[in-house]
Amino acid sequence: MVMKKLWNLSFAYMVIALLSGVFYREYTKGIGYTEATNLSLLHTHLLVLGMVVFLVVLALEAIFHLSQRKFFKGFLLTYNIGLVWSAVMMAVRGWLQVQGGDLSKAVDASVSGIAGIGHILLGVGMILFFLNLKEAISAQA
Prior knowledge:
Blueprint: H1 2-31, H2 39-64, H3 72-100, H4 105-140
């Protein structure tokens, strides 16, 4: 059951990543926007932090049965919330860049602060994952 959930997460992040790449390319091309924007980074972030990470977790689950450890549910929840939060804020920043060019200092600081919460959650999720992995490896030793 957990293996299927991990596969579904990986697949969902792949689909969202591909759609975000298509959106970035077609939208900016359609309106003639040629400057740098965070929308261009969203595709790669979602592929690596979403699809690839959950494929790795899936492989490690098969070896170490991580889902049977105490930090797994916390990792899964915290990491996913952090990733979605960060991705949404990256999309918001990119959208604002495309719509208005340079952001005011207040808007820039607000977006950065809100995005920072997502990064903190990602970091906590990663720590929980490594604690979980350490416990699983120690149990096999």
